[in-house]
From TrEMBL:
InterPro entries: Peptidase_S1_PA, Peptidase_S1_PA_chymotrypsin, Peptidase_S1A, Trypsin_dom, TRYPSIN_HIS, TRYPSIN_SER
Keyword terms: Disulfide bond, Hydrolase, Protease, Serine protease, Signal
Protein name: Tryptase gamma-like
Domain annotation Peptidase S1: ranges: 26-256
Keyword flag Disulfide bond: yes
Molecular function terms from GO: serine-type endopeptidase activity
Signal peptide coordinates: 1-18
Domain of life: Eukaryota
Length: 321
């Protein structure tokens, strides 16, 4: 069991971040058990209605999506929560006293869709409440990296669940994701995508702000937070998340030196398959007969064209005379 720490004791968040002692996840797409994701926070209106998720990054701050905070109304954060209904003996509630939007947040493109959320007072850490580690600058999450997303968002085509849900997805490289969204929205370096090529697993409405995490060694590291998508769980349209590693300096600037979140560099093994480009060969033949049927000259030109960084087209013009 993790000991309870006094809110008045200076604590090295790195030493405790990303620990989920009750979590031994192997497969996804299911209801989460109590204590599996101790950094998951529920953001609620003063009526008690859930509207967005967030992650606990130290004893006083949450990380969430900027687009969640479109109205200046009282908000409560609830941690240690598994169900939105009934009794939750491990939950702790705090009012929100400050929301800091990223200065370059764009509500149209959803670029830099991140916000820091300050709690009214520190929360204690235990088996059911604890901070997640954050991906540090220079972290690499290559295509195929196994990731987990949690939240109370909608389960298509069913109503929103009352219990915390979890789903396992794989990172989709930004080049491929940009091709998938080419006619819909620009995918920037401040974003990270994840899903299944065949669809069926994804974050959805109501999951905004909730964390996407991957495990490295014994620590869970947050790579992204739910930002937007095109529908939910559609084939070849992955979910899009704000890329946490892009914001280490900005987060550190506000959370203070005495209570910094635990930043960890995530390193992906192997090579990046997202650098591979589909190659298409198009052959064009032209035939010209001369007086000598046994004498044939072949002329060809090779033309290359990069189509939106999604595929390379080689057009070969061949003339025979």
């Amino acid at each position: 069991m993790l000991a309870h720490f006094s809110a008045h004791v200076s604590l090295c968040v790195f030493s405790v971040c990303g620990r989920a002692v009750l979590n031994n996840r192997i497969v996804g797409g299911q209801e989460a058990s109590l204590g599996d994701w101790p950094w998951q926070a529920s953001l609620q209106f003063d009526t008690g209605k859930y509207f967005c998720g967030a992650s606990l990054i130290n004893s006083e701050w949450l990380l969430s999506a900027a687009h969640c905070f479109i109205r200046n109304i009282p908000i409560t954060a609830v941690l240690g929560l598994q169900s939105l209904e009934g009794s939750n003996p491990n939950n702790v509630s705090r009012s929100i006293v400050e929301v800091i939007y990223h200065p370059n947040y764009n509500p149209i493109s959803y670029d830099n869709d991140v916000a820091l959320v300050k709690l009214s007072s520190p929360v204690p850490f235990n088996d059911f409440i604890g901070p997640v580690c954050l991906a540090a600058n220079g972290s690499t999450f290559l295509t195929g990296i196994e990731s987990w997303v949690t939240g109370w968002g909608k389960i298509v085509p069913l109503p929103s669940p009352k219990n915390l849900m979890e789903v396992k997805v794989s990172v989709v490289g930004n080049r491929q994701c940009g091709c998938d969204f080419k006619s819909l929205r620009k995918i920037t370096d401040n974003m990270i995508c994840a899903g299944l090529r065949e669809g069926g697993k994804d974050a959805c409405q109501g999951d905004s702000g909730s964390p996407m995490v991957s495990k490295q060694g014994s620590k869970w590291i947050q790579s992204g937070l739910v930002s937007f998508g095109q529908g939910c769980a559609r084939p070849k349209l992955p979910g899009v998340y704000a890329r946490v590693s892009q914001y280490q300096d900005w987060i550190s600037n506000y959370t203070g030196n005495d209570n910094l979140p635990g930043f960890v560099t995530f390193t992906s093994p192997g090579t990046d398959p997202d650098l591979e480009v589909n190659v298409i060969f198009l052959l064009s033949f032209s035939f010209f007969h001369n007086e000598d049927p046994f004498s044939t000259n072949i002329h060809y030109d090779l033309v290359t064209h990069l189509a939106g960084n999604c595929s390379t087209v080689f057009l070969i013009n061949v003339k025979m005379d």
